[in-house]
Amino acid sequence: MNNKHYDILVVGGGISGAATFYEFAKYTNIKSICMLEKYESLATLNSKGTSNSQTIHVGDIETNYTLDKAKITKRTAKMIEKFCLQYNLQDKVMFKHQKMALGVGEKEVEFIKNRYNEFKELFPYLELWDKEQLKELEPLLVYADKDKKVERPEPIVAMGARDEYTTVDFGAMTQELAKAGQKADPEKITDIYYNSEAEYIEKIGDKFKVSTMDGSVYTADFVIVNAGAHSLFLAHKMGYGKDMGSLSMAGSFYITNNKYLNGKVYMVQNPKLPFAALHGDPDILCDGKTRFGPTALALLVLERYKGGKSFFQCLKTMNFDGSIMKIMWDLIKDSEIRNYVFKNFLFEVPGINKGLFVKDAKKIVPSLTPDDLEYAKGFGGVRPQVLNKTEKKLMLGEASINPGNGIIFNMTPSPGATSCLCNAERDIRYIVDYLGLEFDEKQFLADLTE
Questions:
Q1: d(C-alpha 97, C-alpha 215), whole Å
Q2: Where are the strands (E) in 32-150, listed by range?
Q3: pLDDT (0 to 100) of residue 1
Q4: pLDDT digits over 388-414, tens only?
Q5: DSSP 3-state of 371
Q6: Could you tell me if 22 and 180 are in contact, meaning their C-beta atoms sit under 8 angstroms apart?
Q7: Domains of the chain, with CATH numbers?
């Protein structure tokens, strides 16, 4: 049992929590910080390398990003790259692959060409590749047969890059962030506690008391909850965020028996579908075999593959009432969304799932057959999609609850890993002002930005 006080306490040992831990330890004048992780090691859930697409989301090939959003994500993505280069993690944790957004059919080809012209000033390294160039870069996109004799009939074009950092093992990066934070200043207390699930948080005077399931008690001047879907669960326990509910979306993957793609291939996303479009990625944890996904499946759990009480916590966090029902109805009454949801459910059903999934994946690799891939057991995570009960709509992207009294709750679905350092910067700027601390902004910007 512990009973200790810290300047800053971080709940959650995924990449968002570790990024916050690191930045406070290195770039502020705090004297003490601790991070509580509910499991035996860091990054066991959504930050784990098998739970996400291992992608640095820059905004250059993600077709659901507007130009304004891409201007923001370009900076956040560069912070990931700068951190990894600073600690010599290239080719260990961070890797280069070619990447592209693929347009198939006349409508998508026109879309990609227009998007390229719109985005090439922001991303000068982008190239536009026609079918002949794609034969050299990603030949299996072009041919309808494995012998590469018959070309696919549809017109195709892609916009992409050849020599950029694209891929990160975010689980390994989480470990590196924590390690760098603990080594940043030997004068600071930088504690990490494992098997320490935060059960309840309460405000006592001007401090916060955090009680864990093992009976330990910690106090802190400021608490930051970076616990994925559990952030909203803990916020609700304290009476915050009652205007929000959470829809747990699980993503599964399929992995090939060989290397089918040289780099990342994203497709044009349907703007009516709020979840990620199918893409193919070289999996750095599986010898470069191609991983296709993610699927999108609503599950009544806050954690994947963990079992236990996650189901009951999910029901509470959904915060179900008439407003949530309306949001759900608005989603499923659209035939495209309804069919998409039903199809993704079938992608999980053994016996028929591979055959159905391949039909979608063939848009990327036309020669793909069910025998070429397997359902990736144990892969994929759960992303909390926040439901805004006031506006009665699904909120895309990140959400944060800051009641202004010394605690912040962050929910960071994709691309939360890419934006972890930038989100931590946002919180630090607020907290140092709130607590009257100092922030070494000059060094921070020199280390982590252009």
A1: 47
A2: 32-36, 94-96, 99-104, 127-129
A3: 55
A4: 999 999 887 788 999 999 999 999 867
A5: helix
A6: yes
A7: 3-98+163-448 (3.50.50.60)
